[in-house]
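note to self: the first set is below, dont mix up w the second
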Amino acid sequence: NKYGVTVKTYQINIRNEEEVIAFRAWAEQEMGTGLAVLVNNAGIYTNQPTETMNTKDFCDVVSKMALLINAGMITREAWEEIGATGNSVLYEEMRNAAVDMRNGKSEIDAYIGFGNRCGVPFVKKFISMLVQNLEKGNKELVDFLKNESAVCWEEKKHIVKRQGEAAANKLMIPLGMILVGIFVMILVPIVSNIGA
C-alpha cells in the first residue's frame, strides 16, 4: 500500500487468555518485532460466563433433552440435536463436545470435558449426574432429566423475579422525582394564589 505497510489478517478461534498470549508470542516470532497484534476479545470464552444468561440457556437445554430422550432418542443424538439449536457459549460448547465424540472421544469423557469448559457449578453438577445416570441406564436417566427440568424452571422463575425486583429498585428514584415534580406543579399555583 502507499504507506509501505503489509497487513495480514488471521481469523483464529481463541478460547481463553492463555491462547491469546500464545498467539501473540507466535505472531512476534513469525513476523518480527514492531508488530501490532489486535485480538478481538469479543470471541474469547473466559470460562466465566454470566450465570443469568447460562441459567436460561441451561434450562432450555435440560427441558429439550428430557423431551427428546423421553421420546426415545439416544443421549448422544439428543445432545447433537440440541447443540445445533442455539448460538450462546453453552450451545457452542455442546457442539465442541459433539465434535470430540465424532473424533473418537468417549461419550462420558466428552460430557465431563464440556462441564469443565463451562466452569459453572450447576452445569458441572448436571454433567456429573448425567454421567452417573448414563452408567445406570436409560430409565433412571429419563426420571433424572424430568426432575432436573422441574428444578431448572423453578430456578428460572426465581431469576426472573430477582431481575424484576432489581428493575423496580432502579425505577424508585425516577418515580420519586416525578412525584416531587407533580407536587411542585400543584403547590406553586396554590401558594402564588394565597400570596396574591
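second set (the one i keep forgetting abt)
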Amino acid sequence: IRLENILYKPVPKHELLGDKDLSWLKKKDYRNLITREETLAWIKGLEEYDDSEYPVGFDTETTGLNANRNKKERLVGICMSYKFDAGVYIPIEQKDMENNEIPLDELLALLKPFIDRNSEKKKRLITHNGQFDYRVMKMFDIEINITDDTYVMLALLNMGKLRAENSLKGAMQHYFGIDVLELTEAFQKIDKATLN
C-alpha cells in the first residue's frame, strides 16, 4: 500500500456537488479509457476525425508545474476530445484510480501521429495554457500541434481589465454560467493524526 493512497479519500457526492449546478453534465459522455480495446477504438476514431472545422481538445495532467525543467515531474494523464459533448481521460500514473492498461511508451507512440506537429497525420489541437502541455509532451520527444489556446484567447479578451479571469474554471463560470469541478475537488486529504 502506498502512503498517498491512504492520505486521500473520495469526497461524498452530496458534499462534492454542494451548491454547484452540474446538470449540464447529464448530456455529456466523459469517461476514463482503461482497457486496451477501448483505447485503441478511441484512437481509431481520432484517426478518422476530420479536424478541418473544429480542433481536438488536448490537456495533460502532471505531478507538478515544472515539467521539462527539472525532469522530476511525471505525466499522470491525458485528456482529449474530438466529439461535442464527449471526452476521455487516459489515466497513466494516477494514484487514486485505475490506470490505462497500455504501457506509456506504447500509448504515446499510438497518439504521436495525431498530436505531433511534425506528423503528416497531425490534428489541430486546442489547449488551455498550451505552453505547459507543450513542455510536458516535449519530455517524450513530441511537439504537440497547438493551433488554438483558450488561455491566450482569454488573455486577449480580458486585456486591460484589472481582475481578469483567465483560468478555465473561472472562464466557464463567467462566460457560460457553468460550474465545473477540478479533479482535486473529488478527493479530500485525510488528516494524518486520524491514521493513528
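remember for set 2: The mean pLDDT is 84.
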